[in-house]
Amino acid sequence: MDTDQLIRSLAADNAHRAPRVGAVLTMALLVAAPLSILIFATFLGVRHDVMSAMGNPFFDMKFAVTLSLAIPAIIVSLHLSRPEALLRGWGWLLLLPVGLLAVAIGSEAMMAPAMPMTMRLMGKNSRVCLVAIPAMSLPLLAGALFGLRHGAPSRPALAGALAGLVSAGLAATLYASHCTDDSPLFVATWYTLATALVTAIGAAVGARVLRY
Amino acid sequence: MRGREDEWTGLMRSAMAGDDAAYHRLLRAVTPVLRAAARRGLARAGQPPDQAEDIVQEILLAVHLKRHTWDSEAPFAPWLFAIGRNKLIDALRRRGRRVFVNIDDFAETLPGEAPEETASAGEVAAQLNTLPQRQRDVLQSIAVESASIKDTAAKFSMSEGAVRVALHRGLAALTTKLRGQ
């Protein structure tokens, strides 16, 4: 087939309209979310003292941190689904949860410690955290990768890493309502490790499946 | 340069608004520029320029199937050249070359330098034969025999909607097959 002929067939297909990447990503995450919630409901559940915990600013802070990861990661991943897009100018959005955690750690350090630092850091749930966040992330990660496949990222591994951040941020939001460790030191250590693992998986899979 | 790229942006806006003729003109206008850039990239990688047409056709297919990622408020050329670079890099990698794509391979193309011609390429034609019968028939009819959607529908006793679906699926399948080689 010569190129003029190919062009003729492309022009004939001009009426076909694909949905925006954001719409496909949203749908894919909504389809995946019930699976993650099912894992949460089956194995974890909301902690029993949730009503009194909500009065603790460090409990509430966990959700601020995880959502400040997930939402900017969605925004940046959609930006990067355009082929000419650069991370430059957008990457700082991903530092929001880091900044929030730093503020939280600083505030906790200024208060009279309820427990020694190492106990706050190690917590009681570090192993559960390291398993639960990645496990709940996997359905969401598959959804995010499916949604981003609709885009045209020039750096598929980077786009895959962002899918990892999206799914880890959302999974960590669920997990935060289960976990009784509220110290920002615990969050900064274990949530970060779990997120790094999911991000690495996202980058490795994205490098393969997000090429267009 | 500037005027040419503004014209492309205008054509693409019309195309996205449903003007098939503008889309046809746009694709014809960008093709010589893509061809020149692909030849330059191949030459830099020490590859014969006769593979350029395969790369051009792959770029055109990607442009077509990913055009929903173009922001109609943004200029068209940077978007187009980004896709061109990605496809050139992919093509060179598949040929086992170490890749040195000059990021200006696409943007630098001067008007007039690019030869106006149409060339056939082997890869799309070869993959065409692996498509399901109906998609192949429809693509052949529209591309090679320049039949309209309407005439194609009449010829194969299909509805126009079914022709459109087969056409789009065929183009999408071709792209997947090219990527998977």
Question: Can you describe this structure in just a few lines?
Answer:
The complex is a heterodimer of chains A (212) and B (181). Chain A is mostly helical.
Question: What features would you describe in this structure?
Answer:
The complex is a heterodimer of chains A (212) and B (181). Chain A is an all-alpha fold. Chain A has one domain. Chain A has helices spanning 3-12, 21-43, 50-53, 57-80, 96-110, 117-122, 126-148, 156-176, 184-209. In chain A, helix 5 packs antiparallel against helix 9. The mean pLDDT of chain A is 95. Chain B contains 9 helices and no strands. Chain B has 2 domains: 1-114, Rna Polymerase Sigma Factor, Chain: A (Orthogonal Bundle), CATH 1.10.1740; 120-181, Arc Repressor Mutant, subunit A. Chain B is mainly alpha-helical. In chain B, helix 2 (20-44) crosses helix 3 (52-65). The chains are: A mainly alpha (212), B mainly alpha (181). At the A-B interface, helix 1 of A face helix 2, helix 3, helix 4, helix 6 and helix 7 of B.
Task: Describe how the helices and strands are arranged.
The complex is a heterodimer of chains A (212) and B (181).
Chain A: H1 3-12, H2 21-43, H3 50-53, H4 57-80, H5 96-110, H6 117-122, H7 126-148, H8 156-176, H9 184-209
Helix pairs in contact in A: 2-7, 4-5, 4-8, 5-9, 7-8, 7-9, 8-9
Chain B: H1 2-16, H2 20-44, H3 52-65, H4 76-94, H5 104-107, H6 122-128, H7 133-144, H8 149-155, H9 160-180
Instruction: Give the count of structural domains of chain B.
Output: 2
Topology pattern of chain A, helix = H, strand = E: HHHHHHHHH
Strand content of chain B: under 5%
User: Which ranges of chain B are low-confidence, i.e. pLDDT below 50, for 5 or more consecutive residues?
Assistant: none
User: Biggest sheet of chain A: strands, sense, closure?
Assistant: none
The CATH top-level class label of the largest domain in chain B: Mainly Alpha
- Give me the strand/helix succession of chain B: HHHHHHHHH
| Largest sheet properties of chain B | none
By DSSP, the count of extended strands of chain A is 0
Mean pLDDT of chain A: 95
The helix/strand class of chain B is mainly alpha
Low-pLDDT segments, ≥5 res of chain A: none
Number of helices of chain A: 9
Estimated radius of gyration of chain A: 20 Å
Estimate the helix proportion of chain B, in percent: 55-70%
Protein name (chain B): RNA polymerase sigma-70 factor, ECF subfamily
Family (chain B): Belongs to the sigma-70 factor family. ECF subfamily.
Organism (chain B): Bradyrhizobium shewense
Keywords (chain B): DNA-binding, Sigma factor, Transcription, Transcription regulation
